[in-house]
Amino acid sequence: MTAAVLEQGYTYLRPSAVRVVDGAADLVLSTSGGRSSAAPVAHPVFFDGLLRHPEQAAAALLAVARVARTRFWTPPGMLAAILRAADPVVTSNGDRLRFESFSACCGVHARFDALPGSLDGRMLGTGTTNVDFNAPMRDALARVGGGQQLHLQVGEDVVVRTSEAEVVEEKVPLPERWLRGFAEVQLASAATEPAFEVAATQARRLFRDLPTSSGRAPVWVVPAGGGLRLTTRPTPEGVPLGGAHRLAPLGPLLRFARTLRAHTGGHDPRGAASVWELELEDARLVLTLSPAPNRGFSGEGRVLWDLASEGAARDADLVSALLAFEPRIDVDRLAVDAAISPDRVRRALGWLAAAGRVGHDVAEGAYFHRELPYDADRLVAQHPRLRDAAGLVADGAVRLDGDRALVHSGGSDHVVSRTVEGDRCTCPWWARHGGSRGPCKHVLAVQLATSATPGPTR
Known about the structure:
The chain is built from twelve helices and 25 strands. It is an alpha+beta fold. It folds into three domains: 169 residues, no CATH class; 116 residues, DNA Polymerase III, Chain A, domain 2, CATH 3.10.150; 76 residues, no CATH class. Keywords: Metal-binding, Zinc, Zinc-finger. InterPro entries: Znf_SWIM. Pfam families: SWIM.
């Protein structure tokens, strides 16, 4: 099946560029659309200053750009689409800059956090935007050396430089699967737990031992004797790694790394999502991987628990009005300010994550505010299971009976049981996946029909 696409339009004042003058590199990133803390802005200006670890920062920015341009999995019989990659997203949270990208195959998310210690300059605003990562700029960035200064501007003072402006307009097709995945990955990250932490020397040994093939079967990375080893046997102590080649973007950063931390979404013999956090000098590079190369985040369905909840949608409106691009969202403070319970705040944040309006940081163990510069309404409305469930309700296919419900679909009646452990269904989809990939359309239909808010607590 071919995923429907929307056109993402970029309008840049000029291409991003790296200019080297007297041995110092000047990186000017052009911005296109997005939001500031006050309102939508055509060309936000977020930062002007030096990056304290220039060679490291250049390598990290190139890693984020590489993920945006890579399809780590190509279905059999399908030629890899040769499309211009969507440009990375940058968020200014007032004390740090976060650069994000998502792979074309929907299975890898990358984020580079330039933390306060790495920024020597003025934070000129907060918000989120796209930034131009063109090929000449990437080539020049690859030549930045450790002895150079690296000056960074995210956005430009267009009042001063209007006479130099040359508007660059481009359109990029964005598949709905890509957009769903970008939203879904935040909830996958929030559902992980820390698994292990090793020094950079052990991380480099792990990378030397990783298989280079792109097979679907996961391997498990297991702590052993102060280091790490690989096994093909599922083990609760290990972190599943489906498609070891998808860790490659971390490789060029290992020489700068202090530690490698791994987080996992739980033990599942079939594999699970994992988060790989490389601690750098005053910075982090984080990769979030789907359970398998052929299993993109777009099909995971965690967001559906929240999107089907009318209560979560109402709470999300309330909570979103209180967000101000915080680097770490304080759930308890929001609960007090919004006069709702912390659990309702967490569910509202799940809804906002599904709309691309918050991200998740495993290092902080918290959500952070950002607004994807895409159509949020389309992000919420594009889930096939949710559309099918709404159709079942509209057709009168749901019959409620206490803690059970009958849902007539596809010529059969499916029984949905509602228990304190969560909802269950008798359909083949539920038998195959259980709740590991979100609710089936029948469970969703019952949830919509009762206007309830069940689902797993994150």
